[in-house]
Amino acid sequence: MNTFALALHGGAGTITRQLMSAENEKRYLQELENALETGRALLAAGSSALEAVEATVVYLENCDLFNAGKGCVFTKQGIHEMDASIMNGADLMAGAVSGLRNVKNPIKLARYVMTHSDHVFLSYPGAEEFARLHNLEFEPESYFFNQLRYDQWQEIRDTDIYQLDHTEEISEEIIKKHQDHPPHHHDKKFGTVGAVALDQAGNVAAATSTGGMTNKNFNRIGDTPIIGAGTYANNATCAVSCTGHGEFFMRAIVAYDVSCLMEYRGLSLQEACKLVVNDKLVKFGGEGGLIAVDRQGNIALPFNSEGMYRASCLNNEPAFIAIYKD
């Protein structure tokens, strides 16, 4: 059997044991394992890395614990705007979508854009027209409703403030605007899901999906659907999926930067990831993390925040599943 590997993430940020109930921790760990085994089963059976990352992200999109698909957050208008992208390392083909409102699995649509169009990136409303053309599943707004996400949005809906999924550090601006009813404190979490894989044929692929920021306005788009910023895959180097404050990841072109450091400076996967996440990003205030895999089956899961929902496996070895930094 040839080597295969898979890694996934479900977001990063201020995720600590103190802020997590035992019940929630157990559920997160179980869902991360389920998603990992979904992709691993495909890779073990000889499926492509592209198929594995898509299936893994679909599982995460269908779980309301994560800010993607079913669990996505509310915009300032009280709706959902979902973004996703996918890339194949064998031929550098890619597909991306943004602003989706009712497509059940944005990552499936991103794959269709890659394989059934001459384009890379489609946005709403055209992206949903394309989804209907190819008979992808749609869901009503009620499918995406989540009480916790709704409560988070209600706290700040009348302000110009947005939240990175949850925010522990409430700004002075919010406090001043709500002296009588200050918002509750939440853990700061960058809500995105993603997967990277190496298949038995030696090809790599990456996929990323998100619901964006709570109370985001003006159709804001982050790094997730941007090839090179939130997602990148190249057989010559690695596959990368990011999670973090998108504005910083876009400015740093994080996913492609990891690949470039390997290709042009000859760094190893671990060295390249460490330099980008723990040095370059930190220097100008970027918080979050990424997952990456190369053609040798090396896996990197770096992050500069308090925690990151993550899991990985190599061949049929025991799975690695973790949430916190320690």
Please outline what is shown here.
The chain is of the alpha+beta class and 326 residues long. The protein has helices spanning 22-44, 49-61, 106-116, 126-133, 147-156, 172-177, 246-252, 254-265, 269-283, and strands at 5-13, 82-88, 94-100, 121-123, 189-190, 192-198, 204-210, 231-233, 238-244, 288-294, 299-300, 307-314, 320-324.
Highest CATH level, the class of the domain at 5-74 and 186-324: Alpha Beta
Percent of residues in beta strands? 15-25%
> How far do the termini sit from each other?
33 Å
* Number of helices, where a helix is a run of at least 4 consecutive DSSP H or I residues: 9
Series of secondary-structure elements, N-terminal to C-terminal: EHHEEHEHHHEEEEEHHHEEEE
Proper CATH architecture of the domain at 5-74 and 186-324: 4-Layer Sandwich
Judged by helices, strands and strand pairing, the structural class is: alpha+beta
CATH superfamily of the domain at 5-74 and 186-324: (Glycosyl)asparaginase
Tell me the radius of gyration: 18 Å
Overall, the morphology is globular
Report the average pLDDT across residues: 91
Q: Which bin fits the share of residues in helices? A: 25-40%
Q: Which stretches of 5+ consecutive residues score pLDDT under 50?
A: 166-187
What is the third-level CATH name, the topology of the domain at 5-74 and 186-324? Glutamine Phosphoribosylpyrophosphate, subunit 1, domain 1
